[in-house]
Known about the structure:
The complex is a heterodimer. In chain A, 40% of the residues lie in helices and 27% in strands. Chain A contains 4 helices and 5 strands; from the N terminus they run ββαββαβαα. Chain A has helices at residues 25-37, 55-70, 82-90, 103-110; strands at residues 2-8, 11-20, 42-46, 50-53, 74-78. In chain A, helix 1 (25-37) packs parallel to helix 2. Chain A is globular and about 30 Å long. Chain A starts with a strand and ends in a 6-residue tail after the last helix. In chain B, 64% of the residues lie in helices and 8% in strands. Chain B has 24 helices and 7 strands. Chain B has helices at 17-33, 36-44, 49-71, 92-121, 125-128, 134-157, 166-185, 188-192, 194-209, 214-222, 243-268, 277-297, 306-315, 320-335, 337-344, 348-370, 377-395, 398-402, 408-411, 414-429, 448-462, 466-486, 524-529, 531-545; strands at 85-87, 302-304, 436-441, 493-500, 503-511, 548-554, 557-565. The longest helix of chain B has 30 residues, at 92-121.
Amino acid sequence: MEVDIRAADGVAVVEPKGRIDSVTAKVFGERVCELVRGGDNRVVIDLANVAYMSSAGFRSLLIVGKTIEQAAGRLALCGVIGELKRLFEIGGFSQLFVICPTRAECIAKVGPVGPQ
Amino acid sequence: MKKPPDIVYGLEEVPPPVVTMLCGVQHVGLIAINLVYPLLVFRIAGTPANAVVDLIDTGMLVLAAGTVLQALRVGPLGSGFMCPSVFTATYLGPASAAAKLGGLPLVFGMTIFAGFLEAALAPLLNRLRPIFPPEISGLVIFMIGVSASVAGLRLMLGGSAVPVTSAEWSVAAITLATTVILSVWTRGMARMLCALIGVAIGYVAAGIAGTFDPAQGAAVGAAAWVDVPQLGRVSWSFDAGLAVPFAIAALAAAMKALGVITICQRTNDAEWVRPDLSSIKGGVLADGAATVLSGLAGSVGTSTASANVGLAAVTGVSSRRIAYAIAMILVLLAFVPKFAAALASMPRSVMVATLLFSMSSVIVQGIQIMSSRLLDARRSLTIALSIVAGVAVDIFPAIAEAAPPAAGPLVGSALVLATVTALGLNLLFRLGVKKKVGLMITGESTDPETIETFFARSGRAWGARPDVISRAVFGVQQLAETIFENCSPQGPLAIEAAFDEFNLDVRVHYQGEPLELPDARPTDEEIRESADGVRRLAGFLVRRNADRARATLARGRVTIHFHFDH
């Protein structure tokens, strides 16, 4: 799995690519948490290129969410489509996260000028 | 059955009376196009003009009865859908041969024989299910659309047709453009009646351009305003030599009914997954009964109306009430020959444009059904070669001309040849396809790609739905990951998968600690803070991912069984 991180309008956009499973979930979670601890507490995670996410992947998302909450930041997800969307629904994660249809909407939602 | 968003008035809904009647008129306009088939047969039999009028009136009554039979579901009879009866090109070859050999009595007698044969096929359809998978239903529907469109184009462009004038091209373009514009960019009445308005504009354009056939015009002028159809002046005979071509035509009519009723099901149900054989059996029986009735009353074989079913899908009006309106209008037309003659005189440019429009939805539905399943090389070849076979006889009519007379109905029809080719190849390619497959995963870590490839390959060989295979892949990958992480397996994981059209059952066996499949999701805190929370989330996801899941432990061997409805 690769994790691409870039800044856009004061927001850190994280784009994991590949599988988030028991092997890769920890690395993914730690990279995002480090980012937040470094001061980037407005985060968008684009999951459009995630081919598979297991329970370990969902755990890492929950940890990231908690870390951002503790840093008084904001998190939004996009690219939750197809099979991944189904897994979010059956696992009861759709209501837990702010999920937007597009990356731009996510950035607008969590960005410095976004709604509180 | 869930009404699709594009459907304005669904099967059980009651449109306003004006919409019902105007939609009925619109459908009758399409049905009238196929009056050309009995007219051709009567002409071959040398029937006098006054008798032809009576026979056509009788034919209208037969079509009305067939349309009602199809819409009703009385016991085993009828599909329950708005699926009108029409005269069909399928019987044209055999009926023409009968007309030459023994005149109209032989045409009527052999039509009764074919109708009984088609009706007798209906109860056997259940047994045909394994050799008639959904992608072949899709192929049949696709070929119905293509062959009807080609037949329409042949009316204008065929070798024996009178050359098309530029005025006729203009009329065709105006008719098609009007219909398409109303269908795509308008709503309400304009969309629902787009074909009728297109035909009306087409008639006006044809009048202005002067493209009406003067002979047809004279026939309209000569037809009476009111006339009571003369029934009971027919006789019947039978010739065993014509049994084979009529039997093949009956089989073709049954296959067409199967495809057309599948379109009805799909048009009316947003959650359609596979053909429902109970309404198809009823529809084939009703189609056979209508053909028997046609032979008894003195007309030619009937079939289900693919163009009308396509029109219902495009206009969004598929209410059963429309079928009754169509029947009522057909009965009225039987008593008003002038209207019937006016419909029969539809200029070919208007006729072809309307047919092409109606068939567009049929062709797309066929493609969608074919692509709704995973296809391996065998299934892809079956579809591709069958399409090529069907299209070949349309492009090269010499193939049919060179065939023995008995094989005429088989080789002469693109739809029949494509269907028979698909059925034959499907039977052949079933050799060596296993319904139960297995995979062993060894080692300390899971290999996700192996699991994915295993299910993808099996799913394509089975012709399974891609969404169900994706769920099975996730279930097994999540399970394998969790077992290797948490359950200390001794030895490999054995995966077994068994498939039939309705079920996918996956069993994963291993020696080790059992895995809990909880009904309740662990809390967010449990998932975040403890390894047990993640493990229980895995078990919860695996349970919710399948339609049914259970874990059993026997002599230290754990078996986890997933069931997926297919």
